[in-house]
Amino acid sequence: MNVPLPPQLTLRAILLAIVLAMILAAANTYLGLFAGMTIASAIPAAVVSMAVLRLLGGGGILENNIVQTGASAGSSIASGVIFTIPALVILGFWQDFEYSWVVTIAGLGGILGVLFSVPLRRVLIVDQKLAFPEGQAAAEVLKAGENPSQGIRILGFSALGGAFAKLAAGSGLKLIPDTAAGAGFFGGYLGFVGTNLSPALLAVGYIVGVNVGVVALAGAMISWNIAIPIYVANMLPANAELAQIAAGLSAEDLAGLIWSKQIRYLGVGAMLVGGFWVLISLRKSLVSGISSGLAAARASAAGQVIAHTEQDLSMKSVLIGIVLFMVPLWALYEIIVGSLAVSMPMTVIMVVTGFLFCSVSAYMAGLVGSSNNPVSSITIATILFSSVMLLILMGPDSSLGPVAAIMVGAVVCCAACIAGDNLQDLKCGHIVGATPWRQQVMLAIGAASSALVMAPMLNLLEKAYGIGVPTETHSNPLLAPQATLMASVAKGLFGGQLPWDMITIGAAIGVTIIIIDEILRARGSSFRTPVLAVAVGIYLPIELMTPIFLGGMLAFLADRHLRRAGRTEADLGRCGRKGLLFAAGMITGEALMGIAIAIPIVTSGSADVLALPAGLHFGEWLGLGVLVLLGYLLYRTATRAEAAAHAG
């Protein structure tokens, strides 16, 4: 006799997942534009789901799993959009973010990511048993049924801390500055040190860990403490145009100028090498994985009885969905380029590269997790390949070539982000006994829902802070580093100017880092030097990497404290989840406050609408004190939580 399954895809679970997906999409939009990173949100979503469904009268493990599956789509859609679509504004093709276009790109890309990932579930999760760390962690939270009220308290308290820090900073009350930095000349060489005072960046570092934090800061030091001093001392005098602009600047402003005009392109070269290295290193696993997944789908179609835990969306439905989605994608490209000879092959290219890179994204998510998934390098590779094809089809002087390349990259990036997230959620479902096709349907709903809020959120942030390029109105915009990079690469390949000497040197640095990483891998070292993490550090300002490094050190010190205390792996897991919840709360609180602050800025037209009188503006030391206090509370939460758990 068949035992009926507990409820999964219920109406209340769907509605709660949609609300959480939209909130998490908004928070990650701000974080990604600000810091160039987003975080996986499955664990906070699972904790909130358990608390809310308990208030509504129950909610079993499978229903909570459905909620976190749909909710986590918000961060994935945000990643896909912010890594690419702002490039269209940076290139001047759009004046603002057009709602219908953003919804179409994000929605189609997200749902295609779900369809592309269906054949990969069995091989990556069942056959190869990849780790999918966020999926495993979310499953442990759901299985343990940890006190959701305690989790909500941790999230709420840390969110208030992050929100207060953001409100007090430069875009709000201006009690404290956004950064603490200093620069000067030492023996003819320019030196620069600095840190952003954002609690969200500290929390990001805690989540990604000490290894990523160390190599990211090392990448930043390559740019700011090695390359910029060398350039100023030896190469700036030979660049008459840049030397004229630099004349009279302070040491700090000069370092920023040299970074923005020249040195950050070292990171471009390293990212390009890193993207191709990912594809090369995964080629065998990718081919075998796709073949195995399709074979499993054929067996299911032949009528073999399979357990509910192995029931994916049917391969027939997947193929029909992909074909149907090609029609609006073709229409989108046709509207842009106005030529069937261009739009038709580019649609095919989008589908083929989309499936290829979704597979890479899913595989990498299984190895290193969604938070460390190198989707930006996947997108760069897509834009490069698309640009080469468009050069052939449209010619090097086409003004629409970069735009068309970005459009292809945007759809593929959204699909790749969702594919990695989908497999994380399916790993969680595999552990707790969920039905895969129900999760796949929920993820598609979450992706479509998140797409609805992206354009309003981007327009709000663009009007309040500016995105990508400094202007008279917004001298310190949200950097949108990936989108700025995509715009530079696409434009540079169509007759634009790129510092190819710096890109070439960066590529050589990337090759060197890969060699070092391979040596460490061969020796079985637990410390690695992933080229893409180093490349991101090279490309971004060092003040963003410093708090990420400090957050990684906090995670390392907390783990060492627990291990020296002789705690079990179960205790370590409980402590790690509480620390993770505190970090996620700081990120969410700061991001949502950043969005809230944007509303009065936009409605009033003044960036200083919330600023207190100048006499109440405090210096960098107060900002550092706030950061240290929140870091201490994060460490204390992660280390004290184990005592109660152990005692129980």
End-to-end CA span: 39 Å
Oligomer: single chain
Shape: globular
Stretches with pLDDT under 50, minimum 5 residues: 641-648
Radius of gyration: 24 Å
Strand order of the largest sheet: 1-2
Mean pLDDT across every amino acid position: 81
Structural class: mainly alpha
Q: Specify the helix fraction band.
A: over 70%
Which sequence of SSEs, written as H and E, runs from N to C?
Answer: HHHHHHHHHEEHHHHHHHHHHHHHHHH
Number of strands: 2
Strand content: under 5%
Query: Count of helices?
Result: 25
Question: Largest beta sheet, briefly?
Answer: 2 strands, antiparallel
Q: What report would you give on this structure?
A:
With 648 residues, the chain is mostly helical. Helix content is 74%, strand content 2%. It has helices at residues 11-35, 42-55, 61-71, 73-82, 86-90, 99-117, 121-127, 133-144, 148-168, 199-208, 210-234, 240-246, 251-281, 283-301, 315-337, 340-368, 375-394, 401-432, 436-465, 481-493, 500-522, 531-539, 542-564, 569-604, 620-647, and strands at residues 179-186, 189-196. A two-stranded antiparallel sheet has the order 1-2. The radius of gyration is 24 Å and the shape is globular.
